[in-house]
UniProtKB/TrEMBL annotation:
Organism name: Aphanizomenon flos-aquae CHAB5919
SUPFAM superfamilies, per the entry: Glutathione synthetase ATP-binding domain-like
Gene3D superfamilies noted in UniProt: 3.40.50.20, ATP-grasp fold, A domain, ATP-grasp fold, B domain
Protein name: D-alanine--D-alanine ligase
Alphabetical list of PROSITE patterns matching this protein: ATP_GRASP (PS50975)
Similarity field: Belongs to the D-alanine--D-alanine ligase family.
Domain ATP-grasp, first and last residues per copy: 128-335
Alphabetical UniProt keywords: ATP-binding, Ligase, Nucleotide-binding
Domain of life: Bacteria
């Protein structure tokens, strides 16, 4: 069997935060699936100035000495490399949409969801509307733009309509807190969602993978929330070290853990997640956050259609817990992508 030439599409066309986040996961992936018998790996690294680099590794030193090139030159380079498959690892909106569209134009297959699906799920209100129409419970909410007044009575959650990693999310317990919460939310997006707070409960994430054309529900990952900490925030997921690099904080078995598959909530959430996957038109894999109310009912919060195929990626962790090691997970995705 000839080796597959896989391109890791890394970086961000938006800002340094997403650039560093992408590099964090991509580096972990390159280390975790470094099977030189099966794959030849290449890297495309995009920076917020929209320039491309094709470094031999994601070390700061290799990136610094690699000559940057324009989009036109990058397309010339890419088409000459005969790439078999792309693994997109960009988390910014352009990375999820424009760059995947470019791959479609170049007719280079890639693992993961298409740009139209990524655009829909990047906007939390649109994703909620679609899954709600499919019969999935969602918290009642409203979209606000600058100058709008919230009508939902607290407690309520205020969050940017299109931002990840819990950036700009605030729990409002009293109407007097709305002004500050909205100001925070608008720092990250032009639209803000205000939605009813779903009482605890629990908070879980459910991953779905497609294997041989069938939807497979993975074990749930649960997150530490309680009366003292009723919602998750940015610090629960990422932190910046003294070296300026980002580090994952949600993988310590204290803030997050895999739920026993015999837990009765598992099947209920997996059924909801499969409905979300089908309603949104996902392919290859999907990932959804749910709030479980005190009656044990799951409520859809948002979709996060990412998998970097890094050992610390959520879907990778879930798959490992069900006996699917990382390399097998990648092969399943490759088979679905290439048919």
């Amino acid at each position: 069997m000839s080796k597959l030439r896989i391109l890791h599409l890394v970086g961000s066309a938006q800002n340094d935060f997403y650039c560093n986040l992408s590099r964090l996961y991509a580096q972990d992936c390159l280390t975790g699936i470094a099977d030189q018998l099966l794959y030849d790996f290449e890297i495309a690294y995009i920076t917020p100035d929209l320039l491309w680099r094709f470094p031999p590794s994601l070390s700061s030193e290799d990136i610094a000495i690699t000559k940057p090139m324009s989009l036109f030159k990058a397309i010339e380079f890419l088409t000459a490399r005969n790439i078999d498959l792309v693994l997109p690892q960009m988390f910014c909106i352009p990375g999820m949409t424009h760059y995947r569209s470019l791959l479609d134009l170049l007719k280079i297959p890639y693992i993961g969801n298409t740009p139209d699906i990524m655009a829909i799920t990047a906007h939390k209100a649109r994703a909620k509307a679609i899954v709600a129409a499919a019969g999935v419970k969602v918290p009642r909410g409203e979209i606000l733009r600058s100058g709008d007044i919230p009508t939902i009575k607290p407690p309520a959650v205020v969050k940017p309509a299109s931002s990840d990693n819990s950036l700009g999310v605030t729990l409002v317990k009293d109407a007097t807190e709305y002004e500050t919460a909205l100001k925070t939310g608008f720092e990250y997006a032009k639209e803000v969602i205000v939605e009813e707070y779903i009482e605890l409960g629990r908070e879980v994430r459910c991953g779905i993978i497609v294997k041989d054309g069938e939807l497979v529900g993975l074990p749930l990952e649960e997150y530490l929330v309680n009366s003292h900490k009723p919602i998750r925030n940015y610090a629960d997921k990422l932190q910046q070290g003294d070296d300026g690099n980002l580090y994952l904080t949600a993988k310590d078995n204290i803030k997050a853990w895999i739920v026993n598959t015999h837990d009765p909530i598992t099947q209920k959430v997996q059924e909801m997640a499969k409905k979300c996957h089908q309603a949104l038109g996902c392919r290859h894999y999907s990932l959804f956050d749910f709030r479980i109310d005190p009656n044990g009912e799951p409520w859809f919060l948002e979709a996060g259609l990412y998998c970097s195929f890094a050992p610390k990626s959520v879907i990778s962790s879930m798959a490992k817990a069900t006996g699917i090691p990382l390399n097998e997970l990648l092969i399943i995705a490759i088979n679905e992508t290439l048919g």
